[in-house]
Design brief:
The structure holds two protein chains of two kinds. In chain A, strand 1 and strand 2 form a beta hairpin. The two termini of chain A are 25 Å apart. Chain A has one domain: ABC transporter involved in vitamin B12 uptake, BtuC (Orthogonal Bundle), CATH 1.10.3470. Chain A is an all-alpha fold. Chain A is globular. Chain A has 14 helices and two strands, in the order αααααββααααααααα. Chain B is an alpha/beta fold. The mean pLDDT of chain B is 91. In chain B, a hairpin with a 2-residue loop joins strand 4 and strand 5. Classes of the chains: A mainly alpha, B alpha/beta.
Chain lengths: 340, 252
């Protein structure tokens, strides 16, 4: 039985709001929840109702708020990239992490962290991640594409090869790095949203808006693509230009997510799957619901990462992997049963 | 109308398909016959533009490439041999994909989809998961999708069927070809179908062509093409030709 799209969106939206409230009001430093929210209202309305010290206000507005927003946008971007990639490859197991796009983007980001001066990191790291992610996507696409469509087998093998190569490369750079860079790199690699700040949030928001708008425009075409490329072409869709745009959009989204928060696995795989089970595979609903659900998942993971061992912090990538990897194994079991 | 002239298509060193002239005309069902590897599927791919050759295929006297892709989709529909789908669409959602190139409003669209699903004998499958359907049911759902796609054509639509009866049981085979026949006679569809069953070709086709090793070796009304000699020569089978009560030949 399928849940209709609009009520699902309302429920997910409500949960997202709730998650955002928790994320804003809870943390290593104890600040009264009511005052935390008033501080936000003060910024919006220009009033001064919250009774907070300057440093408490700063924690809310300069740490928790950007971090909350970044988690939501990055989660939404990753989930939509996953949905788009699964549609493009016509396979529910395709995910930017599994097929190696994230690993490729990580190489670009690591190179940028290593080579570029720290004060230019806000643009050099996303650019490096995007370029390397794009190059990787194109390589994988060329590799996996045969006369009869895309080979999933080669797709997954390409993912293994590229991830291994990327891992070796990143290991090499890590070896060359000094102590402070080393710590930054390894933290970043495991995925963390701790670096959230104004510019990063803005970039993530703009990228999400672009991605969401473009993908939604192509929702019908993505549905048709699930039938097969020839079938989509017969339905009047310019399949080649569609795929080109999808590859670029996904590289953009993944590159940005990786540069802002490191490699956060499984969101792009688990979320679209869950949404399909909830509301069906039609992309008109799948894309927006995935965005909501992806934002929610990463937000929950980040809150848990901050609170579980407070005041220390877990890398959020570990949590999404803890949630996502078993789910992936479950999927493999299902596939096995289906083909048996 | 779909027309090819001086078609010459070469693949590798071993396969060439050459046809001087052939057309699929409105109001008729034309069958493409031949053994496996004779070039039937290649011909179909060339006809719908999936495979390219030097000579352009003409759809209503205009080269396929010169058509706006969306316009073209409304006039040329292709039923593939088998369609796999790894996602849990319902049968109705698959049929609704045929609406993509159309400009129907919501109400008209729903009506068109429902009417066509009844006509193709799959209305009762509407809510079922496409992946749980049998091969025959899938093919009928796909046919419904393509008929939806062609439902807004401004000129006679062309319908290409790649072995539309391969996964159907006896009754369904006849219902599918009956429907094709009806679309041709009553609504002026131009239909071309690859058929393996010669008896079905005799019964439902107005004209047929016989391909052998990439060449068009016979064409005309079914009774002239499907002869004892041709079957012996191309299929290597010594057939007995009976005559039905209606005076049509029956291959046994």
């Amino acid at each position: 039985m399928r849940a209709p799209t609009v009520p699902s969106a309302l429920v997910l939206g409500g949960l997202l709001l709730l998650g955002a409230l928790v994320s804003l009001t809870r943390g290593a430093m104890t600040i009264p929840a009511g005052d935390s929210l008033l501080a936000l209202a003060d910024v919006l309305l220009g009033s001064s109702t919250a009774e907070l010290a300057t440093h408490q206000r700063a924690v809310i507005l300069e740490l928790r708020l950007p971090r909350t927003l970044l988690a939501i946008f990055i989660g939404a971007i990753l989930a939509q990239c996953g949905a788009a990639m699964q549609g493009m490859f016509r396979n529910p197991l395709a995910d930017p992490g599994i097929i190696g796009v994230s690993a490729g983007a990580a190489v670009g980001a690591v190179l940028a962290i290593y080579l570029a001066p720290a004060d230019e990191a806000w643009w050099s790291v996303p650019l490096g991640a995007f370029s390397a992610g794009l190059a990787t996507s194109l390589l994988i696409y060329k590799l996996a594409r045969g006369s009869s469509g895309t080979s999933v087998f080669i797709l997954l093998l390409a993912g293994i090869a590229i991830s291994a190569l990327a891992g070796a490369f990143i290991g090499f750079i890590t070896y060359l790095s000094d102590d402070t860079r080393l710590r930054d790199l390894s933290l970043w690699q495991m995925g963390s949203l701790a670096s959230a700040d104004g510019p990063r949030v803005w970039i993530a928001m703009l990228a999400f808006a672009l991605l969401a708008l473009r993908l939604q425009r192509h929702a019908a075409a993505l549905n048709a693509l699930l039938l097969g490329e020839a079938e989509a072409r017969h339905l009047g869709i310019d399949v080649e230009s569609l795929k080109r745009e999808l590859v670029i959009l996904v590289a953009l989204g993944v590159g940005l997510a990786v540069s802002a928060a490191g490699v956060i696995g499984f969101v792009g795989l688990v979320v679209p799957h869950f949404v399909r089970m909830l509301a069906g595979p039609c992309h008109h609903g799948l894309l927006p619901l995935s965005a909501l659900c992806g934002g929610l998942l990463l937000l929950i993971a980040d809150v848990a990462a901050r609170l579980l061992l407070a005041p220390a912090e877990l890398p959020v990538g570990i949590l999404t992997a803890l949630l996502g990897a078993p789910f992936f194994i479950l999927l493999l079991f299902q596939q096995k049963q289906r083909s048996a | 109308m779909l027309e090819i002239r001086e078609l010459e298509f070469i693949r590798g060193a071993t396969f060439a398909l050459t046809i001087d002239h052939w057309q699929v005309v409105p109001g008729e069902v034309r069958a493409v016959l031949g053994t496996n590897g004779a070039g039937k599927s290649t011909l179909l791919k060339l006809l719908c533009g999936e495979q390219r050759s030097r000579q352009q295929v003409l759809l209503h006297a205009r080269a396929l490439d010169d058509w706006n892709p969306v316009e073209r989709a409304r006039h040329l529909g292709v039923l593939p041999q088998a369609s796999s789908l790894d996602f849990a669409f319902s049968a109705e959602e698959v049929v609704c994909l045929g609406l993509i190139p159309l400009t129907l409003g919501w109400r008209d669209a729903r009506q068109a989809v429902a009417a066509i699903m009844r006509a193709t004998d799959c209305a009762h499958l509407a809510r079922k998961n496409y992946r749980t359907l049998s091969g025959g049911e899938r093919q009928r759902v796909q046919l419904a999708r393509i008929l939806v796609q062609l439902s807004q054509a401004e000129r006679e639509p062309v319908l290409l069927l790649d072995e539309p009866t391969s996964a159907q049981d006896l009754g369904q085979q006849h219902r599918v070809l009956d429907l094709a026949r009806q679309l041709a006679t009553e609504r002026d569809y131009a239909v071309a179908a690859i058929l393996h069953d010669l008896n079905l070709a005799i019964r439902y086709a107005d004209q047929c062509i016989l391909l052998s090793a990439g060449e068009l070796v016979a064409s005309g009304v079914p009774a002239d093409v499907i002869t004892r000699e041709n079957i012996q020569r191309h299929w290597g089978y010594a057939a007995t030709i009976l005559t039905s009560a209606g005076g049509k030949p029956v291959i046994a």
